[in-house]
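Batch manifest, entry 17 of 40.
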Amino acid sequence: MTIKITRVEDSTTLSRYMSDISDAIRKTLGKTGSHGTNAEVLMRSIVSRVGSPNTYLLVGENEKGFAGVLFSYYMPETAYVEVPVLWARPGMGIKYRQEVFDMLRTWAKERGATAILSCVVRDYEKFVKWFHEPLGFKVIGVLVEAKV
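Output type: structure tokens
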């Protein structure tokens, strides 16, 4: 099964994927919890940033339909790229993570980025070891939360 990866660079293209991206964000937050954000905030961020040269939005499709989304943006003031949205249909993330990450890394280097940051809250010790470490990620901090 092959995947077609598309970079979304304008609102017209984005409009074709809005429903799928929104569903993917909801699925992600359903697994991880909101941790200070929600689907509406993330979708607004995508909508407001698409078209900027500092935004990198990829969607994947295959024979079964929508397969994944990666939303990231470059922050020139820090020289970091942040990845607030990453979702793939089961089995697709591992299969295509290196290819997609290489695309993201190339784009980040073109911008002058020095690092890529990703917040992991779902069973993070296992998830980082399984998914992120093979890509070169290292844990640099811990997200903490206090219930009120």
